[in-house]
Design brief:
disordered N terminus; 2 domains
Length: about 400
C-alpha cells in the first residue's frame, strides 16, 4: 500500500513513488518493522530532520554548527517524546521494494530499449532514478546498478526528442501521451458512441503495451546536437582515470583505434561488475556466446568480469565487425544490436550506411552510435569518421 493512499508525508521517501505508480513497491506496517534493530535509528533520523526544520531561521546571523553531543542530546529528547506521544501501530505503512519483481522490471526496461520507437524511453528516467537507490542497497542486485546508470543518458536524450518531435495526430496540445510500464485498468467508456472494447489488464510481469507515441526518428543533426549537449557536461566516470591508461594498450595491440576504449563508458561506466538483465557482463557488456567466440571462458569462472580480458575480447570483436561492415558506425551498431540484424537490414533496404537503417534499429542502437561519436569527440577530440580502420 503506497504512502499516497495512507496519507504518508510526501517527503517520507519520494524516490519510492515512481515505483509505486509502476506497481513495484509495497509497504508492510511499522508494527512489523519496529522489531528490527535499525528502526530506532530510523525514527531518530526522521525526528532529527523534523526538529531541525522546525527551528526558526535567523535572518541576521548563521548559528554555529551543533556539536555531536548536542545532536545526541537532541535525538535522545526526541526519542523520549516519540515514545510518549506516538502510537507506532497507528502509523502508515513504510513502502519497501518488492525484490521479486525487480529483475522482471529491469528486463522490461531492456525490452523497451530494444523497441524501435526511442520516444517511449522518455518515461524511464524517473523510474530508473527511483530504482537505483534500492538496487544499491541489495548486494545481489548491485551489478545492475552500473548497467542502469550507464543508460540514464538515453532516457534524458529521449525526453529531449519528445519535446522536439511533432505532436501526435489528434493531440491538440504539446502534451505527449505516456506509454506506461504497466497497463492501467480500463476506464468505463461513455455511453455513446458505442464503446471500443478496452484493453484487458495484463499481469504486471507481462509484456509492455504497444507504444502510444507515433514512430519518429530524429535526424542525424538532432542526434549530434542532443548528444553534444549531454556529453559536454559529463564528468569522467569514477573508474575511468584508472582504467583508460590500462586498456588503451590492449586496443592498440589488437589493431583497433585506442579511442574506442571509451565504449566502456557507454556500456558500463567503466565498472567491471556490471551485468545486464539479458546476461551481458563486464566493462564492455559481452554476451556469453560472444565472449566464448573471442576466447573467454564463462565457466566455472566467468572471465568477462576481468577487465583486461573483457577489453581484449571486445577489441577483437570490434575488429571483426569492422572487417565485415567496413566502417565504425555500422560496426558499433552491430556490436550493440547484433551483426545478423544489421546485415539483414542492410540487405533488406539495400542500404550502405548506419543512417540508412537507423530508423529500423532498436531505440538504444539508434542513439548508441551518435552517443559514442559525441563521447569520442569530447574525450579524445576525434569523431568516428576520423578513426582509422583496424591495422591487423
Amino acid at each position: 500500500m503506497s504512502g499516497e493512499s495512507t496519507g504518508a508525508s510526501p517527503g517520507f521517501d519520494p524516490g519510492i513513488r515512481p515505483l509505486q505508480r509502476a506497481g513495484f513497491a509495497r509497504g508492510p506496517g511499522l508494527h512489523d518493522a519496529h522489531q528490527t534493530p535499525d528502526v530506532n535509528r530510523t525514527f531518530r533520523s526522521i525526528l532529527l530532520g523534523v526538529l531541525l526544520q522546525l527551528v526558526p531561521a535567523r535572518a541576521a546571523q548563521t548559528p554555529p554548527a551543533p556539536s555531536p553531543s548536542d545532536l545526541e542530546a537532541l535525538l535522545n529528547e526526541g526519542q523520549r517524546w516519540w515514545e510518549q506521544h506516538i502510537d507506532e501501530e497507528a502509523l502508515p505503512s513504510l513502502p519497501e521494494l518488492d525484490l521479486q519483481q525487480v529483475e522482471p522490471l529491469l528486463r522490461r526496461v531492456q525490452d523497451r530499449l530494444q523497441a524501435e520507437n526511442l520516444l517511449d524511453l522518455a518515461e524511464l528516467r524517473v523510474v530508473a532514478e527511483a530504482l537505483l537507490p534500492w538496487l544499491e542497497r541489495e548486494t545481489a542486485l548491485q551489478p545492475y546498478v552500473p548497467w542502469l546508470r550507464a543508460r540514464l543518458d538515453y532516457f534524458q536524450a529521449a525526453e529531449t526528442f519528445v519535446r522536439e518531435s511533432p505532436p501526435p495526430s489528434g493531440v491538440p496540445t504539446s502534451v505527449v501521451p505516456r506509454s506506461p510500464l504497466r497497463p492501467r485498468l480500463p476506464v468505463q467508456p461513455p455511453a455513446a458512441p458505442p464503446p471500443v472494447p478496452p484493453l484487458q489488464p495484463k499481469s504486471s510481469m507481462g509484456p509492455l503495451l504497444p507504444a502510444t507515441r507515433p514512430a519518429w526518428v530524429p535526424s542525424a543533426a538532432q542526434q549530434r546536437k542532443v548528444w553534444s549537449d549531454i556529453t559536454i557536461v559529463e564528468p569522467w566516470p569514477d573508474q575511468a582515470r584508472r582504467r583508460v591508461p590500462q586498456l588503451k594498450p590492449i586496443f592498440r595491440e589488437e589493431g583497433v583505434p585506442e579511442e574506442l576504449v571509451w565504449v566502456a563508458e557507454v556500456e558500463s561506466s567503466f565498472d567491471p561488475r556490471a551485468r545486464s538483465p539479458a546476461g551481458a557482463a563486464g566493462l564492455y557488456q559481452l554476451m556469453p556466446e560472444t565472449a566464448r567466440a573471442q576466447g573467454l571462458s564463462t565457466f566455472p569462472f566467468d572471465q568477462r568480469y576481468r577487465p583486461e580480458k573483457n577489453a581484449r575480447a571486445s577489441a577483437r570483436y570490434l575488429r571483426a565487425l569492422h572487417r565485415r561492415f567496413k566502417d565504425w558506425p555500422l560496426a558499433l551498431a552491430a556490436y550493440n544490436a547484433g551483426e545478423t540484424r544489421v546485415a539483414n537490414l542492410l540487405s533488406r533496404h539495400r542500404a550502405r550506411t548506419f543512417h540508412d537503417i537507423a530508423r529500423h534499429l532498436p531505440a538504444e542502437t539508434q542513439m548508441y552510435v551518435p552517443r559514442i561519436d559525441a563521447l569520442l569527440q569530447r574525450r579524445e577530440g576525434r569523431s568516428l569518421a576520423r578513426l582509422p580502420g583496424p591495422t591487423r
